[in-house]
């Protein structure tokens, strides 16, 4: 097997694992099930990822560029964040590593820890700094950032993890935008 094919095979395994973990959680997934879906031997999962736990950890690596959501006037923060959120929710259905972490956080302490660390580093802290840098005092910026973070996580949990309908993207974006903006404005 060439290096190029090995990389493609590894990626195919990872994509199937992300989809299955996002859809069914950690406990219900087997190495054999992922291997079968990817059309490979279970031995390759052990070879590339060290087993189910390694595959899960790799499948839940989350990278979301949020910096561009914080470029601009606070008066349009809700619109920028809502557009970014809705795009992510609709563009990566079933394979979003953040969704995998959310679904697994109830059954895997490592997933809950990883989700909390991710949200602190990529949502709560940057949002707090943005709000503070746009003129809010420290305590107010911290409170508003926490409210926005909790609201978005709650909506995400309700609509994605509990498998409720996301609804129309435009309506969802408008509602998120208005609500996030109210929280940002106090």
Automatic annotation (TrEMBL):
The protein's matches in InterPro entries, at most eight in alphabetical order, are given as: Homeodomain-like_sf (IPR009057), HTH_TetR (IPR001647), Tet_transcr_reg_TetR-rel_C_sf (IPR036271), TetR_C_16 (IPR041678)
Pfam families to which the protein is assigned, alphabetical: TetR_C_16 (PF17920), TetR_N (PF00440)
> What sequence ranges are listed for the domain HTH tetR-type?
7-67
Could you list the residue ranges forming a coiled coil in this record? Answer: none
UniProt KW keywords: DNA-binding, Transcription, Transcription regulation
- The entry's DNA-binding region: 30-49
Superkingdom is: Bacteria
Q: Which PANTHER family match?
A: HTH-TYPE TRANSCRIPTIONAL REGULATOR YJDC, TRANSCRIPTIONAL REGULATORY PROTEIN
Q: What is this protein called?
A: TetR family transcriptional regulator
Organism phylogeny: Bacteria, Bacillati, Actinomycetota, Actinomycetes, Mycobacteriales
């Amino acid at each position: 097997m060439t290096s190029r094919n090995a990389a493609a095979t590894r990626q195919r395994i990872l994509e199937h694992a992300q989809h299955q973990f996002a859809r069914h959680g950690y406990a219900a997934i087997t190495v054999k099930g992922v291997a079968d879906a990817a059309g490979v031997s279970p031995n390759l999962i052990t070879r590339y990822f060290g087993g189910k736990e390694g595959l899960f950890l790799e499948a839940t690596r989350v990278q979301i560029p949020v910096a561009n959501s914080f470029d601009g006037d606070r008066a349009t923060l809700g619109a920028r964040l809502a557009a970014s959120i809705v795009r992510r929710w609709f563009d990566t259905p079933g394979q979003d590593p953040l969704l995998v972490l959310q679904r697994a956080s109830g059954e895997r302490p490592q997933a809950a820890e990883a989700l909390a660390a991710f949200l602190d580093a990529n949502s709560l802290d940057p949002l707090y700094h943005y709000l503070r840098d746009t003129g809010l005092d420290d305590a107010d910026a911290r409170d508003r950032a926490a409210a926005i973070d909790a609201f978005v996580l709650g909506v995400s949990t309700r609509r994605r993890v509990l498998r409720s309908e996301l609804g129309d993207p435009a309506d969802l974006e408008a509602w998120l935008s208005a609500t996030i903006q109210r929280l940002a404005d106090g």
